[in-house]
Design goal:
The protein is mostly helical and 214 residues long. Helices cover 81% and strands 0% of the residues. The longest helix has 49 residues.
Length: 214
């Protein structure tokens, strides 16, 4: 009888340990899932904030840094419990980070180019008899053209990445609430806004181009 009680006690301890393990495992899985969903939601909010006309390059760049930190945390969190969600989140965060980086770069470049256009036009209105007028005009124009080309390259990269977003989104569509993901139409609007701004800038650049100053 004594041995029987010991065996029963051991059995109960083992059963309790198994139950405790499954409760702990479920809790860990829930915590990991919630953290990943929070990271996805954060990336989505950052993308939507970047769409605001008043958004500035510094704030968007800071958002890109945050998404990158979330991506690093995700990759170091041991995601075997939520393999499908983690894989989809990884692609979504990478795509969001790269869109945000280009958004910040485009806004910074447009601001810089706008200032350089003012400086170039101001220089053209000055007395052309100055000894260094031509050299300075060439320097300002070359600097302007260089930044304009960089802006064009950034817009092209932004367009390619934005075009890949539907695939990144699709991987999460069945796993995440709809409002936690950036909409296809929203990404399209972000893409088209960048292209429209680039077209406006290209038109303005054309008005500045002409025969080299003499």
């Amino acid at each position: 009888m004594h041995k029987r009680n010991i065996y029963i006690g051991l059995g109960l301890l083992i059963a309790a340990a198994i139950v405790a393990f499954f409760v702990w495992d479920r809790h860990q899985t829930s915590q990991l899932q919630n953290a990943t969903l929070s990271q996805i939601g954060g990336a989505t909010r950052a993308l939507r904030a970047a769409m605001a006309p008043a958004a500035n390059a510094h704030a968007i760049s800071a958002s890109a840094v945050q998404v990158d930190q979330d991506l690093t945390a995700l990759r170091h969190s041991g995601t075997t419990r939520i393999r499908a969600l983690a894989a989809g989140a990884d692609g979504y965060l990478v795509t969001a980070r790269e869109v945000l980086r280009r958004q910040a770069a485009m806004r910074e470049l447009r601001s810089r180019i706008a200032a350089e256009i003012v400086a170039f036009r101001d220089h053209l209105a000055r007395n052309r008899s100055a000894a260094n007028w031509t050299a300075e005009a060439v320097r300002l124009k070359n600097q302007l053209e260089q930044n304009f080309r960089e802006h064009q390259r950034t817009v092209e990269a932004h367009t390619r990445i934005a075009d890949s977003f539907p695939d990144a989104r699709k991987a999460l569509a069945a796993l995440v609430a709809e409002d936690q993901l950036i909409g296809v139409t929203e990404i399209s609007a972000l893409r088209e806004a960048a292209l429209a701004a680039a077209k406006t800038l290209a038109t303005e650049m054309e008005t500045l181009r002409g025969p080299a100053p003499r």
